[in-house]
Each structure stands twice: as C-alpha cells, then as structure tokens.
Design goal:
By secondary structure, the chain is an all-alpha fold. It has one domain (2-99). Helices cover 79% and strands 0% of the residues. The protein has helices spanning 2-41, 54-69, 74-81, 85-99. The protein is elongated. The two termini are 32 Å apart.
C-alpha cells in the first residue's frame, strides 16, 4: 500500500511539473498570437495582457522549493524554471528558514 501511495504522489509531482513547464513555455506564444490577431483587426494596435499568474506561480514556486530542498543549486533552478537567479535565491532562503 505504501508503495502505491508513493507512486501516486510521484505521479502527481510529475504531472504538476509538466503542467508548470507547459504553461511557462506556452503563455508567451498565446499572448503573441492574440496580439497578431488583434492588431490585424484593429489596425496595428497592441493589447496588453497583464500577468496574473498567482496560482500558477504558487505551484511553480512549491516545485522550486522542493528542488532546492533536495539539493539543486539556485543556478540550476533558475535555468530549469526560467526565473532570475535572485528569485531562486529568495526561494532558497525560504527553504533554509523553514528547515532550521
């Protein structure tokens, strides 16, 4: 039973990582497609779509914290999740403060 639970937990982690990676890669393409269609209809105007990624970022940040807690460097985390090194360092500081 324990191995089934751990397998289910790992599957959920893999699914969450995959969704986070997909969203990080897809959003700029979606915004660009909207801008192209909008500008063709309205004569060159561009639309601004604000980034309200609170829930998506919360999931991503939790995955980052897990990677950091497992020993991944802030540089590797920044590259993996397409974030700045300073943001990775802030998350690493959160991980170290909760583990002490």
């Amino acid at each position: 039973m324990a191995s089934t639970d751990s397998a289910k937990k790992r599957l959920a982690e893999i699914a969450a990582q995959t969704v986070a990676m997909f969203l990080n890669e897809s959003i700029p393409q979606i915004v660009n497609a909207i801008n192209v269609r909008y500008s063709s209809e309205f004569g060159g105007e561009q639309v601004h779509i604000s980034k309200d990624n609170g829930e998506r970022n919360a999931v991503r940040n939790e995955l980052i914290r897990r990677d950091l807690a497992a020993g991944m460097s802030t540089r590797a985390v920044a590259k993996k999740y397409h974030i700045g090194k300073s943001h990775a360092a802030r998350l690493a500081k959160q991980v170290s403060s909760t583990s002490t």
